[in-house]
Design goal:
Layout: E1 4-7, H1 11-24, E2 29-32, E3 47-48, H2 54-57, E4 60-63, H3 70-77, E5 85-88, H4 95-102, E6 107-111, E7 121-127, H5 133-144, E8 147-151, H6 157-166, H7 168-185, H8 190-201, H9 204-209, H10 215-221, H11 228-238, H12 241-263
Parallel strand pairs: 1-2, 1-4, 2-3, 4-5, 5-6, 7-8
Antiparallel strand pairs: 6-7
Length: about 270
C-alpha cells in the first residue's frame, strides 16, 4: 500500500482508518482532522491536524470530509495535492470538481456505506481516465479492506448506487425499528423486542454465508404454501410494496443528483 492519509475523522473516515489499519497495517497510513480530539483511532505518530502536511507524507489523499467543508479545505492546501492520487468519498462532489479544485488528474470518486465499521462495507467507485492500473489497484485494495469493492461503469451510476447501497443500511435499520415496535405492541418486553428485531435481521448472514442461494431463493425457502409468511407477503404485494420502494430509491437518487448540482455551483 502506498502512503495514504485519510482527511476527515468523522464516522466514515474513522471507520476506514480502523479497517485499513487492521487489514493493511498502520505503517503507511495517517489520519488528519483539524479537531485533534477526533484523532483517537490513530496512534500519536499517525495524527495530523494540519492538512497542508498531508502532501508531505502521503501519495494518496483520501477525502472523507463533509462536502460543505471541501472549499475551505482547498483554500488551505491550494494545489499541493495536484500530483497525488485523490480518492473522495464526499457525497455529491463530482470527478470534474475534484479535478478542478485539487488540480489532480488522477481522481477516484467513491460511495461507501456505514458497513465499513464492521468490515461489511459496499463501495461503488469510478475514476478519471488518468488513473493508472497501479492506482486503480490501490483504490481496490483500500475498498476491499473494509468490504466489497464495485467499480462502476459511469459516474451517472453513482446516484443509483448511493440510493441503493449508500443509503441502504438506513432501510434495514428502519425495518428493525418497525419490527421492534410491532413486538412491543404485541406485549413483548422492550428488551426482548429489541433482541427479536436484531436477530431477525441476522437473516442477512444467510445471503453472505449461506451458499449460492439468492435473496429470492431464501424468500421462497421460508414461504410455505398457505402459511403465515405467505399471508404477510400477500399484503405487501397488494399494497404494491415494490413500487413504494422504487419511489423511495428514486427520491434518494434524485437527491444525490441534486447534491452534485449544488456542489458544482461553488
Amino acid at each position: 500500500m502506498i502512503p495514504t492519509v485519510i482527511v476527515g475523522a468523522g464516522n466514515m473516515g474513522s471507520a476506514l482508518f480502523r479497517g485499513l489499519s487492521a487489514k493493511l497495517g498502520k505503517e503507511h497510513l495517517w489520519l488528519c482532522d483539524v479537531h485533534e480530539e477526533k484523532l483517537a483511532p490513530a496512534e500519536p505518530g499517525r495524527r495530523l491536524t494540519d492538512p497542508r502536511r498531508c502532501g508531505e507524507v502521503a501519495e494518496c489523499i483520501l477525502l472523507a470530509v463533509k462536502p460543505q467543508s471541501f472549499s475551505s479545505l482547498m483554500e488551505t492546501v491550494g494545489r499541493s495535492w495536484s500530483k497525488k492520487l485523490i480518492i473522495s468519498i464526499m457525497a455529491g462532489v463530482t470527478l470534474r470538481r475534484l479535478a478542478d479544485d485539487t488540480g489532480a488528474s488522477a481522481v477516484v470518486r467513491a460511495m461507501p456505506n456505514l458497513g465499513a465499521r464492521v468490515g461489511r462495507c459496499v463501495t461503488g467507485w469510478i475514476t478519471t481516465p488518468a488513473v493508472t492500473p497501479a492506482q486503480r489497484q490501490v483504490a481496490e485494495r483500500i475498498f476491499s479492506a473494509v468490504g466489497t469493492s464495485i467499480r462502476l461503469d459511469t459516474e451517472s451510476q453513482i446516484d443509483a448506487f448511493t440510493a441503493i447501497a449508500g443509503s441502504g443500511p438506513a432501510y434495514f435499520f428502519y425495518l428493525a425499528e418497525l419490527l421492534e415496535q410491532a413486538a412491543r405492541d404485541a406485549g413483548i418486553s422492550s428488551e426482548h423486542s429489541a433482541r427479536i428485531a436484531r436477530d431477525l435481521l441476522g437473516a442477512g448472514s444467510l445471503l453472505l454465508d449461506g451458499g449460492e442461494r439468492s435473496a429470492a431463493g431464501w424468500r421462497e425457502a421460508v414461504t410455505s404454501k398457505g402459511g403465515t409468511t405467505e399471508a404477510a407477503l400477500r399484503v405487501l404485494l397488494e399494497r404494491d410494496f415494490p413500487a413504494i420502494l422504487n419511489q423511495a430509491l428514486s427520491a434518494a437518487a434524485e437527491r444525490s443528483h441534486t447534491l452534485s448540482d449544488d456542489a458544482g455551483s461553488h
